[in-house]
Design brief:
The protein is an alpha/beta fold. It is built from ten helices and 26 strands. The protein has helices spanning 25-34, 57-62, 71-74, 125-128, 135-145, 161-172, 191-203, 249-252, 295-313, 355-378; strands spanning 2-4, 16-21, 40-46, 50-52, 68-70, 80-83, 86-90, 95-98, 103-105, 108-111, 116-117, 129-131, 153-157, 176-180, 207-209, 212-218, 221-226, 229-234, 237-240, 244-245, 263-265, 277-279, 284-286, 327-331, 337-342, 348-354. The longest helix is centred in the last third of the chain and has 24 residues, at 355-378. The structure holds flavin-adenine dinucleotide. Keywords: FAD, Flavoprotein, Oxidoreductase.
Length: 400
Amino acid sequence: MSITDTTREIPTVTRTRVVVLGAGYAGAMAANRLLRNPDVDVTVVNPQPFFVQRIRLHQFVSGTGDPQVAFDDVLADDIRVVVDTATRIDAGAARVHLASGAHLDYDHLVYAIGTRHRAPEIPGAAEHAWSVSDWAAAQRLREHLATLDEGDPVVVVGGGLTGIEAAAELAERGFAVKLVCGGAIAPSVGPRARRATLRQLARLGVEVVEEARATAVDPSRVFVDVDGVEQILPSAATVLTTGFVAPDLAAESGLTTDEIGRLHTDDALTSVDDDRIVGAGDAVAVAGMYLRMSCQAAEPLGAQAADAVLARIAGDRPQKVDQAFAAQCTSIGRRAATLQFTKRDDSPARMVATGRLAATAKEIACRGTVWFIRHEAARPGSYRWARGGDLATTTEPALP
Ligand SMILES: Cc1cc2nc3c(=O)[nH]c(=O)nc-3n(C[C@H](O)[C@H](O)[C@H](O)COP(=O)(O)OP(=O)(O)OC[C@H]3O[C@@H](n4cnc5c(N)ncnc54)[C@H](O)[C@@H]3O)c2cc1C
């Protein structure tokens, strides 16, 4: 692995050139796997000079975990890393323009730039609220939290898995946390897992406000509508975890996207506009499939994106995406978690584990995501994943 200074001229490569945009779970997995073909030159573009374990960002803001992993540790030696940001894809010219002013020409492109926070249209949110969803946002929140005192009120808005993890972590750090959920908490898990989640949050002192809608944010308060009654919640830090959107790179490059900016691909991860472009991870909307944004989905997608590129180089047709979900595991501070096993389509199964056992499983899963990428770097093509998921739906599975 070598890091290139983009202020210098980028040398011309003569073999099959594959550029991977984004070195997250999907992009790093794809980059390593592409080396199954020794005649491929792989260049990865990523804004940070290290791999960010996004699933530890709630730990990062609370000071309980470091999400950074050196690229040396997760990317194969033969991969070139360009620390930069893609600003435009010129699909016609097969060229990616970078923020530094440099550009990269490609024969094949892997689009794996992830997602970021979806800012809801709440007055004051853009100016006064924080987010934990990506590296830059998490750094800003961490700096702000460092200016607060133990016991200060913190409001987390968004009762999905990210909101629960963030609220629990901040409570364990000593803040007085309220978790405002637009509907019921943890809508994607079953009733047993939901009850366990509420119990474990209560133990940490997190006050959960369900069926509540945040209507405005100012520097020290959140205004919330609960059944038509306005409540004013004091808040020294309002953290929004209200969903993700994709960056606008694909849309601004004239590629077809869905309503949240994800690159539209066919069922084999190929852009519907250009068969030299494949997508993977959170940043793609795969035709006819529901794939919950997760590293659980992103790594198999990264592997299959690499396989799709290698198939095209070999003159073959890429295979249809084939993967399955196994579980939804939510950390609730450092000593508890809720592990909801799922059916292959990600809908809740009967089995649930909680407490320390689930916390251990969650830590193993977090380490596992990095281990899989590292292992693929050492032995390209070795990664295996759960297959046979019935993901043939364009909507989220029905809630229990
Ligand atoms: C706090 C938190 C907790 C989470 N917990 C879990 C969990 O427990 N389990 C789970 O499965 N999922 C979890 N997720 C979701 C999971 O992190 C994402 O689904 C996963 O990171 C998606 O992987 P990805 O490779 O598609 O994108 P990412 O991991 O986001 O990687 C995308 C990469 O692309 C880079 N990039 C962005 N724009 C550009 C550009 N223009 N040019 C070049 N590079 C670019 C980014 O900097 C980043 O390095 C969590 C998310 C958060 C925020």
